[in-house]
TrEMBL record, chains A, B:
<dbReference type="InterPro" id="IPR016161">
    <property type="entry name" value="Ald_DH/histidinol_DH"/>
</dbReference>
<dbReference type="Pfam" id="PF00171">
    <property type="entry name" value="Aldedh"/>
</dbReference>
<dbReference type="GO" id="GO:0016620">
    <property type="term" value="F:oxidoreductase activity, acting on the aldehyde or oxo group of donors, NAD or NADP as acceptor"/>
</dbReference>
<feature type="compositionally biased region" description="Polar residues">
    <location>
        <begin position="20"/>
        <end position="32"/>
    </location>
</feature>
<feature type="compositionally biased region" description="Polar residues">
    <location>
        <begin position="520"/>
        <end position="529"/>
    </location>
</feature>
<feature type="domain" description="Aldehyde dehydrogenase">
    <location>
        <begin position="32"/>
        <end position="427"/>
    </location>
</feature>
<feature type="region of interest" description="Disordered">
    <location>
        <begin position="496"/>
        <end position="529"/>
    </location>
</feature>
<dbReference type="InterPro" id="IPR015590">
    <property type="entry name" value="Aldehyde_DH_dom"/>
</dbReference>
<dbReference type="InterPro" id="IPR044151">
    <property type="entry name" value="ALDH_KGSADH"/>
</dbReference>
<keyword id="KW-0560">Oxidoreductase</keyword>
<feature type="region of interest" description="Disordered">
    <location>
        <begin position="1"/>
        <end position="33"/>
    </location>
</feature>
<dbReference type="InterPro" id="IPR050740">
    <property type="entry name" value="Aldehyde_DH_Superfamily"/>
</dbReference>
<protein>
    <submittedName>
        <fullName>NADP-dependent aldehyde dehydrogenase</fullName>
    </submittedName>
</protein>
<dbReference type="InterPro" id="IPR016162">
    <property type="entry name" value="Ald_DH_N"/>
</dbReference>
Length: 529, 529
């Protein structure tokens, strides 16, 4: 078994207990000020970028192994701080470990470098062309704002950190206040594993507090930002990044309502009303609905609701009360839920409950409501805005008179996901148009299944048009996520000895390369110069 | 010969002549208001995105052929409106034609789609993984702000237009006021060629005036912006794009000073002082220095200036006076030149001239000055800001005591290019550090040669850290430029019939695809779930 850097960590005090201050003092070595973090990340930037890819891959594996080895220390702290279930947190930690390994494989393979080599060509259509070699280089220090709802997979050692480290960028991690102790413990694991793997001091650092996060994002030594959280906070940070004296890219994953559409023939492919209801309620209520991909809307043909009503209510009433992550989530959920329930024409299918315990934690069961399409259209943002928590809206529409494709841009301009249940052999212009519209307004289009399952793989896309993300040309899940932290540079007429190994003659580091050979543009020879 | 849509165009009136108003009226059909342009581009967006790639490639070729066929009509208008030389404009038009053909080839090949296919895998390390297929889709209507200094290659039918059309995005082109008639004539060629190739109405439109440009950039139907021009205008537009209710990506190519460094051993590889001086002056004065890649600084070892002084002056004095593009360029150049000449310690090597004719056009010969390093460091932005026009600064430095690599981030934080002249077999830590620093602060690093030659090829990178561009992860020259106007979408568990051809089983459209086969993650099997 790998040595665990956490073996000697004292028992964690209860959050808010008298011991909390002591705990902070004992662990403060892992927490840095924004200015110090920027200075150290800046200093680490060059040596880390120059680390060869194999060593960087090994470092990612070392972090993965260290996290896996410390699961039994980390998970209980996560349980206490977040209220999430043990199976969920163990699965999430495993996902965090696996995604570090996926990025290690990605770094080692080198495809992501997008190496392009134009051979020198004296006969090029525009006149003699020099030798040009282009690949992607790390942008420099990245500040990652951790999410509350994935205390492992989108937090300290989560996807953004793994992607930035894989790209060769030092990381300044702004901890989420919802799980401060877990953040510090995880940061200790990451810092030690990277140090033991020989990575430069300052490759990974933890900062705490909103002010520190903003200060880091404004620091001229920081080259990019990433974030997973609310629309309001994400917009504020995006505006800060864009308005700096030297603007930097900011990759925010914000709000999404992930509509699901059942066509007139779709109920059969969904396995019937009972199966659809069970899957829907499970997807809405898993992790108490605190997932970016929770289906916020279920569109069903007129008359279907009568079949779904009882099974949805029964499934929802069978879900045990689940704690929400932290008090601010509770207050936000109560506010959105009250607004939705207050809209004229909204009918509860499963009323659901919200109860606040003595510690201020909200405990919830699923709330499912139904509306007709006219109500949805007239209510606007009161119904259309994301409700973060276990609430979803069933919408009945008339397939004979409703142009779903035309409604998508207005109702759902930007979502992470959109799901279609169509007939097994259904083919129609309406369906083609709906799928096309969804592909223009969501990052991932599912055919059956539920969007809350997110594969961490090369082809995953987790990002969509505003307000789903600030930057829909990127993904925050899957191996393509490291592209956010790279930029291209071209070397012209460079002596071989001055090139990075990935661009040298003979391809010593064995990366895939796209070569434009001399003479390929001769077909344009009819053009006069 | 291809039929020319311009064969019947009347002789163009002189700019500012009494006929100008008539001309505008005759041609106004090609100019649209921002609101109309956005509406038509929005309407074109879906049919154009659905056009198959072969048809889109053919349309790009049709535009290229039409422009080539109309060279003799277009070039004389460009000559009159811009003051650029005929050889330059004919070469630039050819470049414009060739880059359209390059993009046609790129669209046909389909590599740029970054197709990724994850096979369904029941044994994936994180549990059963669905079939996922990801590729890039057009973002939607793009507003391109044309540049003044490349009336063909960065204007109406220039690189940004070619890239956006190649990506499948309708284009709203905001004309540059420096060459209004050429803009309208070129737009006519583009509109007719696209229509004849069967592309949707609204695929390409021309708008005029700053207010219309801003209105288009703010229009909710517009999905991205691109720009080539000044730092001030680019920053203002970038801020508008970022502060919209729904922010959009904005790709601005702004200011760059393109430093050139001659090492202690570099003068020999440059061919000696005379050759270096001749190449330097030619690069500074070509097109009257009105190029984004003009070398604004030449660093030479102490003592070298004595050898360069006479040949630089002689070469500069041999350059004929050249008209600047339009009066605002002249006033900007005069202001920057006066500021630079007024800095204490600045010594003219070639004084240069600026004369304004009766039409308000500035005529210039090259101004080359020299300073020592201390003067440069203390003068700050007075010397470091871009001087757009035929002016450059020679800096003497002491190789024994100067750490050039350490100066790069402070003096030249972001440039399009940086050039090194080193010894033919030179190898040293200092040189390695300098090249690495330049690769972090420029988009293209040249070894010898001059940066004003820009190859339009797959490996070209024309973009660099702020203030060179607003978005250094992109290029505005070369085939990679179309990536700016694409975003990823993934299809999960889609029936083959519902997939775009590029993602279907059997790869009917023959695009390169990266496949993650089932079972590849078994090496991670030791992880507990």
């Amino acid at each position: 078994m790998t040595h665990s850097p956490l073996d000697t960590t004292p028992d964690a005090p209860e959050a808010g207990s008298a011991d909390a201050a002591t705990q902070v003092t004992e662990e403060q070595s892992v927490v840095t000020s924004a200015a110090d973090a920027a200075a150290r990340a800046h200093a680490a930037s060059t040596p880390f970028a120059l680390t060869d890819r194999a060593a960087r891959a090994d470092a990612l594996l070392a972090v993965a192994d260290a996290l896996a080895a410390d699961a039994d220390t980390l998970v209980p702290v996560g349980l206490r701080e977040t209220g999430l279930a043990e199976a969920r947190l163990r699965g999430e930690l495993n996902r965090t470990v696996v995604q570090l390994r996926l990025f290690a494989d990605t770094v080692r393979a080198g495809d992501y470098l997008d190496v392009r080599i134009d051979e020198a060509d004296p006969g090029f259509a525009l006149g003699a062309r020099p030798d040009l070699r282009r690949y992607l280089v790390p942008v420099g220090p990245v500040v990652n704002f951790a999410a509350s709802n994935f205390p492992f997979a989108f937090s300290v050692a989560g996807g953004d950190t793994a992607a930035a480290l894989a790209a060769g960028c030092p990381v300044i991690l702004k901890a989420h206040p919802g799980h401060p102790e877990l953040s510090r413990l995880t940061a200790q694991v990451v810092v030690r594993a990277l140090a033991e793997a020989g990575m430069p001091d300052g490759t990974f650092q933890l900062i705490e507090g909103q002010d520190a996060g903003i200060e880091a994002l404004r620091d001229p030594r920081v080259a990019a930002g990433s974030f997973t959280g609310s629309l309001g906070a994400g917009r504020a940070l995006a505006d800060i990044a864009a308005s700096r004296p030297a603007p930097i890219p900011f990759f925010g994953e914000l709000g999404s309502v992930n509509p699901v559409f059942v066509t007139a023939d779709g109920l059969v492919s969904a396995g019937g009303a009972d199966a659809l209801a069970a899957g829907f309620v499970a997807s809405v209520s898993g992790s108490a609905g605190q997932l970016c991909t929770k289906p916020g809307f279920l569109f069903v043909p007129t008359g279907t609701l009568a079949q779904l009503d009882a099974p949805i209510r029964e499934a929802a009433e069978g879900v045990a009360a689940h704690r929400l992550l932290y008090p601010k989530i509770t207050s936000g959920y109560v506010e959105r839920r009250d607004t939705i329930l207050g809209v004229e024409g909204v009918r509860p299918v499963a009323a659901g409950t919200v109860e606040v315990d003595d510690d201020g934690h909200g405990w919830v069961t699923p709330t499912i409501v139904s509306v007709d399409l006219d109500t949805l259209l007239s209510a606007g943002e009161d119904l259309l805005d994301e409700a973060f928590g276990p609430l979803s809206i069933v919408v009945e529409y008339d397939p004979a008179t409703t142009d779903l494709a035309a409604l998508v841009p207005e109702l759902f301009p930007g979502s992470l996901t959109a799901t279609v249940y169509a007939g097994d052999t259904e083919q129609s212009d309406d369906l083609d148009r709906l799928v096309f519209a969804l592909s223009r307004h969501a990052g991932r289009v599912l055919f059956g299944g539920w969007p809350t399952g997110v594969a961490v793989t090369p082809a995953m896309q987790h990002g969509g048009p505003w307000p789903a993300t600030t930057n829909d040309s990127s993904t925050s899940v899957g191996t393509a996520a490291l592209l956010r932290f790279l930029r291209p540079v071209a070397f012209q007429s460079a002596p071989d000895r001055m090139l990075p190994p990935e661009l040298r003659d003979g391809n010593p580091s064995s990366v895939p390369r796209a070569t434009a050979p001399a003479g390929e543009s001769t077909s344009w020879g009819s053009t006069s110069v």
